[in-house]
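R.M. (postdoc): so does anyone remember the format we settled on? I'll just put the structure tokens first.
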């Protein structure tokens, strides 16, 4: 300014250059931050779009499953509307009925049979023979498994022995001797959970399932409404004129006498058999739902 280049001028030049460098650094930093913000915004946008895509796919999957379930329930309701009210007469058997002439039972009017398949993890000794004989005689047959499960896991484990031979249904038979010395005796929720685990595992395997019980047992030990909202009941009740709860099958007698039981006469003519009435056309239901091998 004064026409003389001196130390003040040098200092001003240095200061000017430093200020310029600082400004350039600031501009460079701002550019980096802007680029980073842009990358972050783009990444967030992409992540949000991916989340929305996944959510849309999940919503579509759930909607499809719900629609499929509605269609299945509507189909089942239509089937039940068509077949409820029918009555078919049958029996349930185990080793205590000895060797059986199934053709004689068919001639006597037996239309279906519930055959004991086993207990715990042991298959009933004459199960295969009974299944084969009933089928050859043209008798629809379902199987039941006597459960002594002490937990949900044990109930499911018992199903390793469940066999694919039923054309009616697979039944969980849990009775008074099952509950003796059982830690679930005073645990209604726990026992109900175990039974539902048993029945649900059957159902997931593609089979129709139900529970065998009676009024006294269900009142004492079960949260029965949790079971009946999903599964049918095979109800045991004698000396009454109708079942004590809504059911698909009613075991109305434990003292039936029919020609064709215990053909080797191991019980000296004293063999009795449980008598049952089915209120649903289970084979038709299963065919319509494409389960139990149909």
């Amino acid at each position: 300014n004064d026409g003389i280049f001196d130390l003040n001028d040098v200092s001003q030049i240095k200061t000017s250059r430093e200020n310029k460098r600082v400004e350039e650094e600031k501009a460079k930093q701002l550019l980096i931050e802007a680029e980073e913000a842009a990358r972050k915004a783009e990444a967030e946008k992409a992540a949000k779009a991916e989340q929305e895509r996944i959510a849309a796919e999940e919503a579509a999957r759930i909607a499809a499953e719900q629609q499929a379930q509605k269609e299945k329930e509507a189909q089942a309701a239509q089937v039940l509307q068509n077949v409820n009210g029918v009555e078919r007469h049958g029996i349930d058997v185990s080793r205590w009925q000895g060797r059986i002439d199934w053709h004689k039972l068919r001639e006597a009017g037996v239309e279906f049979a519930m055959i004991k398949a086993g207990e715990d993890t042991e298959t009933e000794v004459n199960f295969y023979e009974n299944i084969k004989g009933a089928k050859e005689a043209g008798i629809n047959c379902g199987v039941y498994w006597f459960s002594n499960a002490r937990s949900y896991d044990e109930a499911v484990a018992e199903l390793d022995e469940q066999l694919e031979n039923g054309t009616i249904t697979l039944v969980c038979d849990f009775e008074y001797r099952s509950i003796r010395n059982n830690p679930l005796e005073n645990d209604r929720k726990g026992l109900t959970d175990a039974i539902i685990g048993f029945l649900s595992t059957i159902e997931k395997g593609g089979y129709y399932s139900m529970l065998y019980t009676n009024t006294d047992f269900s009142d004492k030990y079960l949260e029965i409404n949790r079971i009946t909202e999903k599964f049918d009941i095979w109800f045991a009740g004698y000396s009454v004129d109708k079942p004590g709860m809504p059911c698909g099958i009613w075991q109305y007698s434990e003292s039936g006498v029919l020609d064709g039981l215990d053909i080797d006469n191991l019980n000296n003519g004293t063999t009795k058999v449980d008598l049952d009435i089915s209120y649903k056309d289970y084979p038709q239901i299963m065919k319509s739902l494409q389960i139990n091998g149909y």
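R.M.: ...and that's the designed sequence above, right after the tokens. Also worth knowing: Residues 101 and 127 are 14 Å apart (CA to CA). The longest strand covers residues 112-119.
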